[in-house]
Structure formats: C-alpha cells, structure tokens
C-alpha cells in the first residue's frame, strides 16, 4: 500500500465558502473524501441543505453554515458558531464569488459595488474572522480561489478581473504577513470550468468552441479536476508552500 499520509486530512475542519454548488461543492466533497470535516456555506439555505445531504450521503461529515460573505456581522457570527459548536477551522477556502459581464463604459455602479462586496470584501471579512483565530492557534491553511483573470485581461469582465487580481495580491501580501504564524496562504487559479457561473458561456456554442481552441488541453474542465490542488494546499505536503498561485487551467495562462 502506498503511504499517502502527507495528504491525509483526517481530523481537520475545512470551511469552504460558496460551496452549495460548482467549484466550492466539488472542493468540499474532495476535501471531505480526504478525511476533513466540512463546513458548507452559501446564501440560499434550501440549496445549502440539499448540497449537505448529498455530501452526507457520500459519508462526509458536514455542517451547514448559511451566510453571505459580504455581510461582515453574519460572517463573524457564523465563524464564532462553527468554532464553538463544531471545532477550530483548520482550512479556509475562500471560494465564494460571482461574475457579472457588461462593457465597462456602461457597467452599472451598483453591480461594480456588488461584485467588489462579494469577491473582495467577502474574502476580507471571512479571512479576518478565521485568520485571527488561526494566528492564536499558530496554524492554519487558507486557499483563495483566483482565476486566469488574476493575471490576464478580458473584455466585458474588467471588474471581475480586478477582483481576482486583488485576490492574487491578498494571497501574496497575507502570506508575507502571516507565514510567521505557521499559516500557509495560497491560491488556485482555475481556467474555464463547467459550473453554473459559466452557464451562459457553455450555452454559447461559439464561445465554447473558442474556449476549446484557446485552451491547450482542448476542453473545458470539470470542477472535480481542482480537487487535487486543494488537497495538496490543505495538507501537510504543502507545509512550506506560501503565497503561491497554482494554475489549474489546461495550459491556458502559459500559452498564446
Ligand atoms: P457558481 O457555480 O456560481 O457557484 C457559486 C457558489 O457560491 C454557490 O454555492 C453560491 O450559492 C455561492 N455564493 C455566491 N455568492 C455568495 C455569497 N455572497 N456568500 C456566500 N456564498 C455565495 O460559481 P463557480 O463557477 O463554482 O465559482 C466559484 C469560484 O471560482 C468563484 O470565486 C469564481 O470566481 C471562481 N472561478 C470560477 C471559474 C469557472 O470557470 N467556473 C474560473 C475561475 C475562477 P448561493 O447563490 O446560494 O449563495
């Protein structure tokens, strides 16, 4: 039998924000199968309960934590409750995020504020709420879900790319600040993944063909293809990996 204990997450508690669907759900399932207990999060309580039931059906120990990452008070209340009732959060995956597409010149201000509130402020709130406790414990893992647009520009999604660029810099800056507390902060930057967030693009045959042509791997990815990267960054195998952005993008960001 191979010894994979370096990647064993047994006994760890992972809070994955935005995990009632898409990438977050896949990562929650993957971390759960690697042994972690999961705190599952989303805004819609019904959708969250259904997702938790699916995980429990796979034998994963799961708790639900319904809150909006943009609501600072709700975030702090939820983190306090999770830590009191379930246990210390060992792994935080900052995954919750939204996409809004519109030409920049007519991008509505309220939509700009909405995307910033969720994709950037949300990470600020949750990371502060959990990170302070990790500092006290002198251990923790934080994985931020970035994007190829953390680095690359693209028309009609300038605000989204700005949020993901910010997240890349939060990953690096926080790593510089908190590595001394034995907190490893890294990011995963997915390429084009088949999730509800991209339904409009998946339904657009021309766009979908562009993705297949532009991506060296020649296809969209399934959310489950991000699991290995998340287990690695959450596990003892990554104890000296800090401030890294791990691209899981079929080669998109390293090719023209
Ligand atoms: P998705 O399919 O739309 O799922 C988003 C999840 O987040 C849902 O569970 C949603 O549930 C939850 N959520 C949204 N806003 C929230 C909030 N304010 N507070 C708490 N939960 C919230 O999205 P996805 O494609 O899986 O994307 C997940 C992350 O990966 C995002 O950060 C996205 O930017 C990033 N990403 C995605 C791709 C891709 O190709 N799909 C590529 C690069 C990066 P509720 O609506 O019920 O809250």
Structural class of the helix and strand makeup? alpha/beta
Helix content: 40-55%
Major β-sheet profile: 7 strands, parallel
CATH homologous superfamily annotation: NAD(P)-binding Rossmann-like Domain
What is the helix tally?
8
The third-level CATH topology is Rossmann fold
Instruction: Kindly give the count of domains.
Output: 1
Beta-strand fraction estimate: 5-15%
The Cα radius of gyration reads 17 Å
User: What is the first-to-last residue Cα distance?
Assistant: 42 Å
What general outline do the C-alpha atoms trace? globular
Low-pLDDT residue intervals, each spanning 5 or more residues: none
| Record field, number of beta strands | 7
Ions and ligands: NADP nicotinamide-adenine-dinucleotide phosphate
Order of helices and strands: EHEHEHEHEHEHHHE
* Mean pLDDT reading: 98
Give an overview in words.
The protein is an alpha/beta fold and 256 residues long. The protein has one domain: Rossmann fold, CATH 3.40.50.720. Helix content is 43%, strand content 14%. The protein contains eight helices and seven strands, in the order E-H-E-H-E-H-E-H-E-H-E-H-H-H-E. The protein has helices at 22-33, 45-57, 72-85, 109-137, 158-178, 199-202, 205-214, 227-234, and strands at residues 13-16, 37-42, 62-66, 91-94, 140-145, 183-190, 245-248. It has a seven-stranded parallel β-sheet with strand order 3-2-1-4-5-6-7, sandwiched between helices. The longest helix has 29 residues, at 109-137. The model has no long low-confidence stretch (mean pLDDT 98). Bound molecules: NADP nicotinamide-adenine-dinucleotide phosphate. NADP nicotinamide-adenine-dinucleotide phosphate (NAP) binds next to helix 1, strand 2 and helix 4.
